[in-house]
Amino acid sequence: MDLSEPVEVLKGIGEKKAELLRKCGILTVRDFFYTLPRDYEDYQAPTSIAAIRPGKIVIKGKIDSLSSRRTRRRSLSITEGVVRDKTGAIKVIWFNQKYRMKQFSPEKEYYFTGNYEFRQGRYTLVSPSAAEVTDVDIATGLSPVYVAHGKLKSADFRRLFNASRDRFSSVPDLLPSVPHGERGRALFDAHFPSTHEAITAARDYLAYEELFELILASKLNRRENDKLKAEPIHFDAEKIKEFVANLPFKLTNAQRMASWEIFQDMMKAVPMNRLLQGDVGSGKTMVAAMAALEATLAGKQVALLAPTAVLAAQHYKGLAGLLEPFGVKSALLTGATKGKNTLKKQIESGEINLVIGTHALLTDDTVFSQLALVIIDEQHRFGVMQRQKLMLKSPPGLAPHLLAMTATPIPRSLQLTVFGDLDVSILNEMPKGRKQITTQILSEVEINERLYPMIRKVVSGDNGKKTTSALDGKPARSKISNSSRRTNQSTPSNGQQVYWICKAIEEGAYGSSDKTQSEVTSVKSRAKKLCDVFPEYRVEFLHGKMKPAEKDDIMERFAAHQIDILVSTTVVEVGVDVPNATLIVIENAESYGLAQLHQLRGRVGRGSLESYCYLLTTGDVPPSRRLRELEKSTDGFHLAEVDLKLRGPGEIYGALQHGALDLRIASLSDTKLIHKAQQDVERFLQNPENMVKYKELMQGIAKYQQITTLN
Q1: What is the mean predicted confidence (pLDDT) over 44-51?
Q2: Residues whose CB falls within 8 Å of the CB of residue 529, separated by 6 or more in sequence, listed in order
Q3: Is there a contact between 100 and 94 (Cβ–Cβ < 8 Å)?
Q4: Among 608, 633, 658, where does a domain finish?
Q5: Dihedral of alpha carbons 160, 165, 170, 172, sign
Q6: Predicted local confidence at residue 501, as pLDDT
Q7: Which of 373, 439, 467, 475 could form a disulfide with 295 if both were Cys (CB 3.0 to 4.6 A apart)?
Q8: Widest CA span of the chain, in angstroms?
Q9: How many CB atoms lie within 10 A of CB 375?
Q10: Is residue 190 within 8 Å of 202, Cβ to Cβ?
């Protein structure tokens, strides 16, 4: 069988069905066979209606009294009916599933599976799945459940697969080192399971197949990278020693080790392809500074790409001063930079050694003369094409060395799969003097009693008195009229500063399908409330819809301690370094992912002061596991492993890429299966003939090669 043939070649799929399948992204026979069930219903032991109890139930019966109505509130459609067997009858209800009206025949029997729960004064079977008894294999009692796509429901997919039941034995093998026919058997058992054990075995094989393809793609990327040529950069030991000796602090052992790994890579004629991962505050920027110094000492140029103008400016401010004594000329290039044309001429002539910037570095008129090192901060914020655009600015015939940095630690399993083409350096030590951040979950009802007093204690300082700031003693500036912003015009405090993170900008910015206004407090309304509660403190708000210059101005004033409490969206998530900020409140904490919560928490605890993170929850629902994990641990590596198990690769992998990582079955936390696939890939690559022999495999990994490369 040729799996690349159009889906119409299969029995029971005519033009109309093929068109419906195409709308679901199912174009070929392979697409169709790999449309796997999301779950399985077990109908082997249905319960009689007289014997059911609240909870998950399976019953067999006929349905009648079907009716459908719409509610005025939220425009919800409700379909109701009564299911009966010989022992009794129960009410059944579906929401927004009007097609159920045409699904059932009063003469036929069906299996119903769902939750039997108390609703509006009576027990009801809520939104059950349904299968006609004659469609279920009586011998096994197992029925696959498929995700509905448009007009194609789960039952439609079952009928279509049943029509092609005899074709699975003709499916060609995809991988080496597996028994003949294993792939066809696995696909058959996934769609027509005989036992639960058969389902497990089928899913194990198909997961292994996915991991094999993913790991093979990343290994081939590494081979491709090794074919490229780069400018070897000599290691200037004396200058690096001088640089380290003049630092106002001592490097951690992890920083020293990572730096040496980078120096060794840069001395090679093959481009470095290294990921520097370390928790928030572990000192990645200092390692990047040494790499940049090494390249510029060799007469080469360095580009440092940051995701935001604020972070780029912070890097510029820190690195320019450190590197200037060594003759390094640095420049900041963002969308708001004045005199860009003159600056770009200096970059093109080679006059500027280190260029730190945002997406402005990627424009066609930003030309380098001797670009030999590219540093990308928060690499997951950039897509493949953006990274490659910067890499192509090196001299013809040469590729620059690449150092990608992330403050989101990468779980070991992702290092072996998605990031398999990279060498990885890990900063697993924190600089001396850093205090642990105390994290606590609070409910909204505790704001007045517990949170506000803590904020007052932190912002006021130990003696609780307001004094004039050593900076300028001037009240906070407000460039926006009071109609849109209100800030307190108060005397500076001598204490620490506070972040308060909100989800929305305006009240009701979340639509009716999202959280309600009562659950999501906007940045603007929260800032007004805090102005009322703390009239003696300077309160400002910040969000991503503001103009870049305005955002930069607010962050600069916050860093200069001209603002006491900054109410913001997650625009402050990445990189902002304000050591005097020691308390962060994250409102509606349950609506964020674990990695993002950890990043936000990293805005405090960046100095030697005691720091605090408060996670505010709404409603009466107990805190989620991710909030409890965050409360217990400040170890980003541990939290990354937990996050991978809870959510999959998510933003760890890359905001612009991970959606393409369409793993149907494999879990990137299954380290045992990943290890087996990795060993088999190594053996596969030892025989070059395999590249020709397994044509479908080599064609199929092309998409993985595109999304697993940084270079």
Answers
A1: 90
A2: 521
A3: yes
A4: 633
A5: positive
A6: 94
A7: 373
A8: 91
A9: 28
A10: yes
Question: How many residues does this entry show for the chain?
Answer: 711
Select, from the ranges 120-124, 510-514, 670-674, the one with the highest average predicted confidence (pLDDT).
120-124
Q: What is the pLDDT of residue 206?
A: 94
Q: What domain range includes position 82? A: 44-135
Domain count, the chain: 2
CB-CB contact of 421 with 708 (8 Å): yes
Domain membership flag for residue 529: yes
Helical H segments across 376-423, by residue range = 384-391, 412-416
| pLDDT tens digits along 585-638 | 999 998 888 878 888 898 898 877 889 999 999 877 788 888 999 999 888 778
Task: At 483, list the tokens.
Answer: 């109609």
Report, in angstroms and rounded to the nearest whole number, the Rg of the chain calculated over CA atoms.
30
Average pLDDT over residues 329-352: 92
Tokens at 240, concatenated: 């690096």
**Backbone angles phi and psi of 487, in degrees to 5:** -125, 150
- Show the tokens assigned to 30: 């392979």
Rounded to whole angstroms, how far apart are CA atoms 26 and 30?
Answer: 8
Closest CA to 91 of 113, 65, 110: 65
Q: CATH code at 604?
A: 3.40.50.300
Give phi and psi for 20, each to the nearest 5.
-65, -40
Domain CATH number, residue 77: 2.40.50.140
Q: Write down which residue in 135, 160, 177 finishes a domain.
A: 135
91 within a domain of the structure (yes/no) = yes
- Alpha carbon distances (Å) from 140 to 156, 159, 160, 478: 20, 17, 19, 71
604: in domain: yes
Cβ neighbors of 524 (< 8 A, separation 6 or more) are 485, 505, 506, 507, 541
Its pTM stands at 0.70
Asked if residue 580 is part of any domain, the answer here is yes
